[in-house]
Design goal:
By secondary structure, the protein is α/β, with parallel strands linked by helices. Strand 10 and strand 11 form a beta hairpin. The protein is built from 14 helices and 15 strands. Bound molecules: ligand T4K. Ligand T4K binds next to helix 3 and helix 4. The site of ligand T4K has 21 residues, from helix 3 and helix 4.
Length: about 400
């Protein structure tokens, strides 16, 4: 076992960087992908709603017990075509500040101003009561994000939207194969969109899909996705190009048979991290929803005061071990340069739960390159114990050199 830490002179734990977003591609997935991609080349049919894209839509809809899954080039475009189909092109949408900036950007590209809401400190999802307080005469929609596969309180949000006559849709980019109770995204009476980005639990390289039980909405989404063609040769709608290619669909289809074992592997890593780290003082684990299902793609914890070293100190220590931890979604959309000024004008810059959570959050890698995943998770957990053992030296190291080292996000 490693005696010390890289910042105190030992070798780094990993020879190559271990990323939080490292794509998961099993050898069998790769083989299946080559075969499926070849089938597309054999047909010489590469995009425009081909047979692989259609099959992927059917499989994704079935898994999520939804009538339709509308495959798109990525989740950002999926959100934009969804906003268009729902007639949302002005006014305001209540969005969690704790989301990837894409959720806010897609609103603004569509003419809808995102108004950032605070979160529940446990789940990290939008707080329905805080959202309600921010409703104005301009508010048209509520767009929660299911952070780390824990679904937002969709029942409370659906009730709020019914009461205040607002449209509900959700960012389910993290929530492929996840549930709240027994309900999957798309199962709460509102359309939701998934991301199939390469960093996600389920990927089509780039891609996404809208889940809906509304047949008419699905027809409209498919037309908007394809330049607005709702009759052969005639664009009756303002559409765009948001189509997913056959090669992207091939990668998605190739990944599907791997998911059961993938989820088991990720859960094992999650369990190791949780078992080893939760007894340590000052570390609080972001809990999965015990009453729901999670895909375990993310493992996140909060480095709190009792740990004795600040989150960014821990982050730099781990980076020097080639563990490329992230701070999803620091600093929060409300503090991103593009939104900050507008947010200040609205006197909406203080979102205490969001600021507190994002000041302490750390996401650890759950997929590992060429090494035993279980051993790796255990070794990472051991590093946290070493940090506690060497706290004084580490503080000295931080003040002397650590705080000056470059540290990209
Ligand atoms: N809503 C939410 C809640 C989202 O999380 C996202 C996307 C969206 C909406 C929009 O979905 P899409 O339109 O993308 O479908 C990444 C992804 O680019 C982004 O898709 C994702 N969320 C976000 C959470 O993560 P970064 O800036 O963290 O990615 P990046 O490129 O730094 O990747 C993370 C690390 O993973 C890298 O440091 C290296 C490693 N990596 C990455 C890729 C792509 C690899 O080792 N290999 C790779 O191929 O945004």
């Amino acid at each position: 076992m490693k005696q010390s830490l890289a910042v105190l002179g030992a070798n780094a734990l990993f020879a190559v960087p271990q990323h939080v977003g490292g794509p998961i591609v099993e050898p069998e997935t790769r083989k299946r992908f080559h075969k499926l991609a070849d089938s597309a080349f054999d047909r010489n049919y590469l995009t425009n709603n081909g047979p692989l894209a259609t099959r992927l839509e059917e499989e994704v809809a079935r898994r999520h017990r939804c009538r339709d899954a509308v495959f798109a080039a990525n989740a950002t475009l999926a959100q934009m075509i969804l906003l268009k189909a729902l007639g949302l092109d002005s006014g305001e949408a209540l969005v969690s500040a704790n989301t990837f900036v894409a959720t806010a950007h897609a609103c603004l590209w569509s003419g809808v101003t995102p108004v950032f809401c605070d979160i529940d400190p446990e789940t990290l999802n939008i707080d329905p009561r805080d959202a309600e307080r921010r409703i104005t005469s301009k508010t048209k929609a509520v767009i929660p994000t299911h952070v780390f596969g824990v679904l937002a309180d969709m029942d409370a949000l659906a009730a709020l939207c019914r009461r205040r006559n607002l449209t509900l849709l959700a960012d389910a980019a993290h929530a492929f194969d996840c549930t709240r109770g027994s309900a999957f995204p798309g199962g709460f009476g509102a359309p939701e969109f998934l991301s199939f980005h390469a960093t996600k639990y389920f990927s089509s390289l780039e891609g996404g899909a809208i889940l809906t039980n509304d047949a008419a909405l699905a027809v409209e989404l498919r037309a908007i996705r394809n330049f607005g063609f709702n009759r052969p040769g005639d664009a009756g709608l303002l559409g765009m190009n948001a189509k997913g290619s056959e090669i992207a669909a091939a990668f998605g289809l190739a990944s599907l048979p791997a998911l059961e074992a993938r989820r088991r592997r990720l859960k094992r890593i999650h369990d190791i991290y949780a078992k080893e780290l939760s007894p340590l003082p000052g570390l609080r684990i972001h809990a999965v929803d015990a009453a729901g299902r999670n895909n375990y793609r993310y493992f996140s914890l909060f480095v709190e005061e009792d740990f004795g070293l600040e989150r960014d100190v821990v982050r730099q220590i781990l980076r020097q071990e080639n563990i490329m931890v992230r701070r999803y979604f620091y600093p929060g959309c409300h503090r991103m340069t593009f939104y900050r000024e507008e947010n200040k004008k609205r006197k909406n810059e203080k979102l205490p739960n969001t600021d507190k959570a994002l000041g302490t959050i750390l996401s650890l890698p759950t997929s590992f390159v060429e090494i035993d995943a279980g051993k790796s998770a255990k070794a990472i957990a051991t590093l946290f114990k070493k940090m506690l053992d060497h706290k004084t030296e580490l503080k000295t190291w931080w003040n002397r050199e650590g705080k000056n080292l470059p540290l990209a996000e």
